[in-house]
Amino acid sequence: MSSIASPERIWWNPLSRVEKFWVVLAIIVGLAMFSSMFIWMAIGKQNIPTETYQVTKDQFSHASQRMVQQYRVRDDAGVPVVSPPAGSDVYLVARAWQWSPILQLKEGETYRLHLSSMDFQHGFSLQPGNLNLMVLPDYDYVATITPDKAGEYTVICNEYCGLGHQAMVGKIIVTE
Ligand SMILES: [Cu+2]
């Protein structure tokens, strides 16, 4: 018999008990994983409360500028650092390729974080913490957040937005 001969073709034989067992088990595991998506959505605390509104770029950038004028405490490498009062609306502007301003929030207080973009689609990714939100032009995406751990957080863009994408890094400071 030559070495390129086909192997003996027995694959159409009826499934053995063992094969049946593993096929059924794989289906059960698959269904369990599939349904866990919905279970996590309902009870896993995986989704933060959000609202979305239509907004023009001018309206959003004015709201952010007003906040910066009122609550700016200093600058960090040319980016204003703002410390808005607890419970207030805070505005983070995404534009190619910068997040502005730097928000300084208080631990344990709740804020309404508004996100919008002045140009392309960007992704708000908070590190550490792994909070991920979409940032779109002409939409005001409002996430109600309560920072529970003081520290300095990095905001990176996780949606490819052009040549400077990898340098699009911002900051959120949470104080005690
Ligand atoms: Cu980007």
Explain this structure:
With 176 residues, the protein is α+β, with helices and mostly antiparallel strands. It has one domain: Cupredoxins -  blue copper proteins (Immunoglobulin-like), CATH 2.60.40.420. It has helices at 17-43, 57-71; strands spanning 50-54, 72-76, 79-82, 89-95, 98-100, 102-106, 111-117, 122-127, 131-135, 139-145, 151-157, 169-175. The strands form two sheets. A seven-stranded mixed sheet has the order 2-3-6-12-11-8-9. Strands 1-10-7-4-5 form a five-stranded mixed sheet, covered by helices on one side. The radius of gyration is 25 Å and the shape is elongated. Bound molecules: copper (II) ion. Copper (II) ion binds next to loops.
Question: What brief labels describe this structure?
Answer:
176 residues, alpha+beta, Immunoglobulin-like, 24% helix, elongated, binds copper (II) ion
Task: Indicate the CATH class.
Answer: Mainly Beta
Mean pLDDT: 91
Ligand kinds: copper (II) ion
- Order of adjacent strands in the largest pleated sheet: 2-3-6-12-11-8-9
Count of alpha and pi helical runs: 2
Estimated share of beta-strand residues: 35-45%
Number of strands: 12
Helix content: 10-25%
Radius of gyration: 25 Å
Name of the CATH architecture: Sandwich
Kindly report the CATH topology. Answer: Immunoglobulin-like
Which sheet architecture does the biggest sheet show? 7 strands, mixed
Compact overview of the structure:
By secondary structure, this protein is of the alpha+beta class. The mean pLDDT is 91.
List strands and helices in order, with pairings.
Blueprint: H1 17-43, E1 50-54, H2 57-71, E2 72-76, E3 79-82, E4 89-95, E5 98-100, E6 102-106, E7 111-117, E8 122-127, E9 131-135, E10 139-145, E11 151-157, E12 169-175
Parallel strand pairs: 3-6, 4-7, 6-12
Antiparallel strand pairs: 1-10, 2-3, 4-5, 7-10, 8-9, 8-11, 11-12
Copper (II) ion is lined by residues 122, 157, 159-161, 165, 168.
